[in-house]
Amino acid sequence: MNRRRALTAVSALTALAAGIGMSARAADRHWKRGPGGDLLLHTDGQDPGSGEVADILVKQLRTALPDSGATVVRESSAERLDSVMATARGDVAVIAYDIALEMYRGEPPFKAAGPIELRVLVENYKYQVVCPADFARDRAYLLAEALMKDPVLLKLTVPDRPSGTTGRDSIPTHPGALAFLKGEPLDKK
What we know:
The protein is of the alpha/beta class. It is 43% helix and 14% strand.
Protein backbone atom coordinates (compact mmCIF):
# COMPACT_ATOMS: atom_id res chain seq x y z
CA MET A 1 0.00 0.00 0.00
CA ASN A 2 2.84 2.41 0.82
CA ARG A 3 4.45 1.69 -2.54
CA ARG A 4 1.18 2.48 -4.29
CA ARG A 5 0.90 5.77 -2.39
CA ALA A 6 4.49 6.67 -3.21
CA LEU A 7 4.00 5.95 -6.92
CA THR A 8 0.73 7.89 -6.94
CA ALA A 9 2.37 10.83 -5.20
CA VAL A 10 5.35 10.82 -7.59
CA SER A 11 3.13 10.70 -10.66
CA ALA A 12 0.84 13.38 -9.21
CA LEU A 13 3.78 15.66 -8.49
CA THR A 14 5.17 15.11 -11.98
CA ALA A 15 1.81 16.01 -13.50
CA LEU A 16 1.60 19.02 -11.20
CA ALA A 17 5.00 20.32 -12.23
CA ALA A 18 4.15 19.90 -15.90
CA GLY A 19 0.75 21.56 -15.54
CA ILE A 20 1.85 24.86 -14.01
CA GLY A 21 2.53 27.36 -16.76
CA MET A 22 3.48 30.96 -17.26
CA SER A 23 -0.01 32.14 -16.31
CA ALA A 24 0.68 31.05 -12.73
CA ARG A 25 3.61 33.44 -12.58
CA ALA A 26 1.35 36.33 -13.57
CA ALA A 27 -0.63 35.93 -10.34
CA ASP A 28 2.61 36.03 -8.36
CA ARG A 29 3.06 39.72 -9.24
CA HIS A 30 0.04 40.40 -7.01
CA TRP A 31 1.14 38.35 -3.99
CA LYS A 32 2.43 40.54 -1.22
CA ARG A 33 4.13 38.88 1.69
CA GLY A 34 2.28 39.63 4.89
CA PRO A 35 3.80 40.87 8.13
CA GLY A 36 3.81 37.32 9.50
CA GLY A 37 6.09 36.05 6.72
CA ASP A 38 5.39 32.79 4.93
CA LEU A 39 2.01 31.32 4.08
CA LEU A 40 1.50 28.39 6.45
CA LEU A 41 -0.69 25.40 5.57
CA HIS A 42 -1.55 23.70 8.86
CA THR A 43 -2.49 20.03 8.97
CA ASP A 44 -3.69 17.51 11.53
CA GLY A 45 -0.60 15.47 12.41
CA GLN A 46 -2.81 12.51 13.31
CA ASP A 47 -4.32 12.43 9.80
CA PRO A 48 -1.58 11.45 7.34
CA GLY A 49 -3.92 12.17 4.41
CA SER A 50 -4.17 15.88 5.27
CA GLY A 51 -0.38 16.05 5.33
CA GLU A 52 -0.08 14.34 1.95
CA VAL A 53 -2.63 16.71 0.40
CA ALA A 54 -0.89 19.73 1.96
CA ASP A 55 2.49 18.61 0.62
CA ILE A 56 1.09 18.46 -2.91
CA LEU A 57 -0.65 21.83 -2.51
CA VAL A 58 2.50 23.50 -1.17
CA LYS A 59 4.48 22.31 -4.18
CA GLN A 60 1.79 23.78 -6.41
CA LEU A 61 1.77 27.06 -4.47
CA ARG A 62 5.56 27.35 -4.49
CA THR A 63 5.41 27.14 -8.28
CA ALA A 64 2.38 29.40 -8.81
CA LEU A 65 3.09 31.87 -5.97
CA PRO A 66 6.79 31.57 -5.07
CA ASP A 67 6.74 34.79 -3.04
CA SER A 68 4.15 33.25 -0.71
CA GLY A 69 6.81 31.04 0.89
CA ALA A 70 4.17 28.31 1.30
CA THR A 71 5.13 25.83 4.02
CA VAL A 72 3.40 22.87 5.67
CA VAL A 73 3.04 22.93 9.47
CA ARG A 74 1.95 19.62 11.00
CA GLU A 75 0.08 20.25 14.23
CA SER A 76 0.14 17.45 16.81
CA SER A 77 -3.62 16.87 16.76
CA ALA A 78 -6.95 18.16 15.48
CA GLU A 79 -7.47 19.86 18.85
CA ARG A 80 -4.17 21.74 18.47
CA LEU A 81 -5.15 22.70 14.91
CA ASP A 82 -8.47 23.99 16.26
CA SER A 83 -6.61 26.15 18.78
CA VAL A 84 -4.29 27.56 16.10
CA MET A 85 -7.18 28.46 13.79
CA ALA A 86 -9.32 29.84 16.64
CA THR A 87 -6.62 32.25 17.81
CA ALA A 88 -5.92 33.58 14.29
CA ARG A 89 -2.38 32.21 14.34
CA GLY A 90 -3.23 30.01 11.36
CA ASP A 91 -3.43 31.20 7.76
CA VAL A 92 -4.79 28.17 5.99
CA ALA A 93 -5.48 24.58 7.01
CA VAL A 94 -6.06 21.33 5.17
CA ILE A 95 -8.66 19.48 7.23
CA ALA A 96 -10.92 16.47 6.72
CA TYR A 97 -14.52 17.53 6.00
CA ASP A 98 -16.03 16.17 9.21
CA ILE A 99 -13.36 17.66 11.47
CA ALA A 100 -13.58 21.08 9.76
CA LEU A 101 -17.36 21.09 10.23
CA GLU A 102 -17.01 20.15 13.93
CA MET A 103 -14.54 23.05 14.39
CA TYR A 104 -16.89 25.42 12.56
CA ARG A 105 -19.80 24.38 14.78
CA GLY A 106 -17.77 24.21 18.01
CA GLU A 107 -18.78 20.58 18.60
CA PRO A 108 -16.85 18.12 20.78
CA PRO A 109 -13.93 17.78 21.01
CA PHE A 110 -13.67 21.41 19.90
CA LYS A 111 -16.02 23.03 22.43
CA ALA A 112 -13.22 24.83 24.30
CA ALA A 113 -12.53 27.24 21.44
CA GLY A 114 -16.20 27.50 20.52
CA PRO A 115 -17.39 27.80 16.92
CA ILE A 116 -14.67 29.10 14.59
CA GLU A 117 -15.61 31.32 11.67
CA LEU A 118 -13.89 29.36 8.92
CA ARG A 119 -14.27 29.79 5.16
CA VAL A 120 -13.49 27.29 2.42
CA LEU A 121 -11.05 28.13 -0.36
CA VAL A 122 -11.16 24.81 -2.23
CA GLU A 123 -12.26 21.28 -1.41
CA ASN A 124 -12.38 17.75 -2.71
CA TYR A 125 -14.35 14.68 -1.72
CA LYS A 126 -12.53 14.32 1.63
CA TYR A 127 -10.60 17.48 2.53
CA GLN A 128 -11.24 21.21 2.70
CA VAL A 129 -8.66 23.97 2.49
CA VAL A 130 -10.02 26.50 4.98
CA CYS A 131 -9.00 29.89 6.33
CA PRO A 132 -10.37 32.34 8.91
CA ALA A 133 -13.36 34.41 7.77
CA ASP A 134 -11.26 37.57 7.99
CA PHE A 135 -8.52 36.21 5.70
CA ALA A 136 -7.70 38.89 3.10
CA ARG A 137 -9.93 38.73 0.00
CA ASP A 138 -7.05 39.18 -2.46
CA ARG A 139 -5.05 36.38 -0.82
CA ALA A 140 -8.05 34.04 -0.88
CA TYR A 141 -8.58 34.86 -4.56
CA LEU A 142 -4.92 34.20 -5.42
CA LEU A 143 -4.83 30.96 -3.44
CA ALA A 144 -8.00 29.67 -5.09
CA GLU A 145 -6.63 30.66 -8.50
CA ALA A 146 -3.27 28.98 -7.85
CA LEU A 147 -4.80 25.80 -6.43
CA MET A 148 -7.25 25.52 -9.31
CA LYS A 149 -4.44 25.59 -11.91
CA ASP A 150 -4.48 21.80 -11.71
CA PRO A 151 -7.79 20.83 -10.08
CA VAL A 152 -7.86 17.32 -11.57
CA LEU A 153 -4.86 16.16 -9.55
CA LEU A 154 -6.75 16.22 -6.25
CA LYS A 155 -10.27 16.60 -7.70
CA LEU A 156 -10.47 20.12 -6.29
CA THR A 157 -13.42 22.47 -6.67
CA VAL A 158 -14.31 25.91 -5.40
CA PRO A 159 -17.74 25.43 -3.78
CA ASP A 160 -20.48 27.95 -4.50
CA ARG A 161 -21.66 28.51 -0.90
CA PRO A 162 -21.87 32.22 -0.08
CA SER A 163 -21.87 33.20 3.58
CA GLY A 164 -25.33 33.41 5.12
CA THR A 165 -26.92 30.80 2.87
CA THR A 166 -25.91 27.57 4.60
CA GLY A 167 -26.65 28.07 8.30
CA ARG A 168 -24.18 25.88 10.15
CA ASP A 169 -24.81 22.86 7.87
CA SER A 170 -21.66 23.49 5.85
CA ILE A 171 -18.77 25.92 5.86
CA PRO A 172 -19.31 28.90 3.52
CA THR A 173 -16.86 29.73 0.76
CA HIS A 174 -14.54 32.69 1.27
CA PRO A 175 -15.66 35.77 -0.73
CA GLY A 176 -12.26 35.92 -2.48
CA ALA A 177 -12.56 32.31 -3.65
CA LEU A 178 -16.14 32.99 -4.75
CA ALA A 179 -14.93 36.00 -6.77
CA PHE A 180 -12.40 33.75 -8.51
CA LEU A 181 -15.11 31.13 -9.14
CA LYS A 182 -17.40 33.72 -10.72
CA GLY A 183 -14.65 35.13 -12.92
CA GLU A 184 -14.54 38.53 -11.25
CA PRO A 185 -11.28 40.49 -11.51
CA LEU A 186 -8.86 40.31 -8.61
CA ASP A 187 -9.09 43.98 -7.70
CA LYS A 188 -12.92 44.20 -7.61
CA LYS A 189 -14.12 44.71 -4.03
